[in-house]
């Protein structure tokens, strides 16, 4: 569970503290069924693809400051993190279900998504999730993400929602279930898609 302690919990703890839940930017978060979860994965992937389509090498490599990531680095971080988060989800599903703990979950799905995509608090990723300069072409990164997501989507399609809801993990901001951890994976991509949008909007971004 090292990723919770080193990275994810940091911004979730801050985002959930005394936060007024703002309307999410993708979709209408009123459903808790698998169709909604699958749609959210599709929406986050489509949005990422839309804003990185046809970017040039200089655009991919552009940094607004020396200590900031390029779009290429953000894409690599997204791929690395989705892989790590899904591994954690699989480990949670392998444990015994605990339906008696359902009442302990305090964060709603809507609150979790809003907390994840909120970029008002920013933290440094741990070494294992730091980009190394793997991608010089956005299509390669998106292909890797798509292949990785096929595994995640198959998991969602083949796992009853009740099982996802009844497998519960402790985190520093409280218990969450597997369904919510999957929302977190897609939400993390939405969070960093916003980061790419910030890079694209920078005044120095190359034409």
The neighbouring-strand order within the major sheet is 1-2
| Helicity, as a percent range | 55-70%
Instruction: Note the beta-strand portion.
Output: under 5%
CATH architecture assignment name: Up-down Bundle
* CATH classification class: Mainly Alpha
Total count of strands: 2
Architecture overview:
The protein has 207 residues and is mostly helical. The protein has one domain: dinb family like domain (Four Helix Bundle (Hemerythrin (Met), subunit A)), CATH 1.20.120. It has eight helices and two strands, in the order αααααααββα. The protein has helices at residues 2-16, 34-52, 57-61, 71-93, 109-117, 138-158, 161-166, 178-200; strands spanning 168-169, 176-177. It has a two-stranded antiparallel ribbon. The longest helix is centred in the middle third of the chain and has 23 residues, at 71-93. Mean pLDDT is 83; it is low at 1-7 and 9-31.
Structure described in brief:
With 207 residues, the protein is mainly α.
Would you spell out the secondary-structure blueprint of this structure?
Blueprint: H1 2-16, H2 34-52, H3 57-61, H4 71-93, H5 109-117, H6 138-158, H7 161-166, E1 168-169, E2 176-177, H8 178-200
Antiparallel strand pairs: 1-2
Helix pairs in contact: 1-5, 2-6, 2-8, 4-6, 4-8, 5-8
Key attributes of the depicted protein:
207 residues, Four Helix Bundle (Hemerythrin (Met), subunit A), 8 helices, elongated, disordered N terminus
């Amino acid at each position: 569970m090292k990723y919770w302690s080193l990275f994810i919990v940091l911004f979730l703890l801050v985002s959930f503290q005394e936060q007024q839940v703002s309307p999410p930017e993708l979709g209408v978060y009123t459903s808790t069924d698998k169709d909604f979860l699958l749609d959210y994965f599709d929406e986050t992937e489509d949005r990422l693809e839309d804003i990185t389509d046809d970017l040039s090498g200089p655009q991919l490599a552009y940094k607004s400051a020396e200590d900031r990531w390029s779009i290429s680095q953000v894409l690599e971080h997204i791929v690395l993190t989705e892989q790590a988060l899904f591994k954690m989800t699989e480990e949670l599903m392998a444990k015994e279900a605990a339906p008696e703990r359902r009442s302990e979950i305090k964060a709603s799905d809507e609150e979790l998504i809003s907390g994840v995509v909120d970029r008002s608090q920013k933290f440094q990723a741990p070494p294992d999730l730091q980009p190394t300069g793997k991608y010089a072409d956005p299509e390669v990164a998106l292909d890797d993400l798509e292949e990785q997501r096929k595994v995640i989507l198959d998991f969602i399609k083949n796992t009853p929602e009740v099982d996802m809801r009844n497998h519960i993990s402790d985190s520093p901001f409280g218990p969450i279930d597997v369904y919510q951890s999957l929302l977190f994976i897609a939400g993390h991509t939405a969070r960093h898609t916003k980061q790419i949008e910030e890079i694209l909007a920078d005044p120095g971004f190359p034409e």
